[in-house]
Amino acid sequence: MKKFFTKNGMLLLTAITVLAVLLCVFSAASSGTGFVHNALGVIASPFRAVGSTVSGWVTGIGDRFESLEALQQENQDLRRENEELRRQLRQAKEDSEENQRLRNLLNLRQQRQDFVFESANVVGLGSSNWSSTLTLNKGSTCDISIGDCVVSDEGYLVGVVTEVGLNWSTVSTILDTQSQLGAIVFRTGEATVAQGDLNLMNQGLLKLSFLEDEASLINGDLIITSGLGGYYPSDLVIGAVQEIRTDDTGLTKYAVLLPQVDPTSLRQVFVITDFQIVD
Amino acid sequence: MSQRDLFYKWLFYCLLALGWMALQQLVLNHCSWWGGVHPFVWPMVPVMIALLEKRAESCTFAIFSGLFCDLLAPGVIPGFYLLTFLVCALLAGLISGRVILPGFLCAFVCSVVAFVVSDLLLILCLSSSVKFSGAEALSLMGKELLLSLLLFAPVYLSFRLIRRRIHND
After folding, report:
1. Looking at the domain A116-274, which fold is it?
2. B24 vs A203: CB contact, 8 Å cut-off?
3. How distant, in Å, are the alpha carbons of A168, B21, B55 from that of B26?
């Protein structure tokens, strides 16, 4: 075999070259698919199919790896976007709440133009079962002083400032046992005193004492500050009558008041730093 | 005990005390279990230290923790917790070993005494400015005591665990 190729190698190569050139010329000259070309195509077809499958498989694997990386990247981006959207939603909710509070305050300001308000955040809640206090994040540098009334955004009385520091103040809520406010019954105009009570404080209630005519009171009667003496502003809503009880001695009656706002649930309050005394 | 162990022991005591105080401020204050009363763990903290450590050290701890509580949540009078914690720590030191053998029962009795003493001091302070009946005050005191004692075991065991760990090491 080796001898055959050594002897006739050149001849064979020349013959193949001539044949290839003839095939090229023949293919170029013919208009359609020639017989030889067709026959070669038929023979090569299964090999092409296998080649295509293998090539497709390899490309698929490569694409998969590429798309996995892209998916991971996309997933990361989406997570980041999701987190950002969540943060924006939280911010929007907070802004919306604050907006509502400020709208309420604006409404209150329009109603009571004699009030000077200072907004403050509640930063602490008293720990004791024996008192009901709040700590605010503003103090004397914001003109807050002892005896200032503190209201909610809707104008409901929360309590009275009892201690003031430079940038903090303590508020005794209307539920606190030390709180005592001149009040009047809105419907009848009867003067009375709203005060904290040890027994009622932890239930979120307060007491209406020194009633002249307890028989005239009905459940749901609104109790507001009297403003008598000019110590506290008038017409601030304290609460509504929940029930009328007789005290331990059995001689006098008192009303139990449900405050219009739960002082311990507030996050932002407004301190009335100045007001006009109405005689 | 080495200086290092001593340092770690007091560091962990302080961290644990801070944890209980934070739990009080952030969680327990917002609980309303029995007629609106919530458990109050603060007086138990200096008592536990007084039972586990020497008098001088426990009194120093009581003073600082009382001061911290006064700053965190103002009491009825300025320095109320400082005074109360110091008295509670001294009483716990007196009871432990002299009246009852140190241990779980002693810690329980000392905690009850601490609550009674702190509430009596509070009533004393309040009575000068607020009018209330003795029955109301006793009722509130009883509710607070019973609710707070529910947390006695975890408070006691947590402080004892630190002491045991440090001393065993």
Report:
1. Thrombin, subunit H (2.40.10)
2. no
3. 19, 9, 31
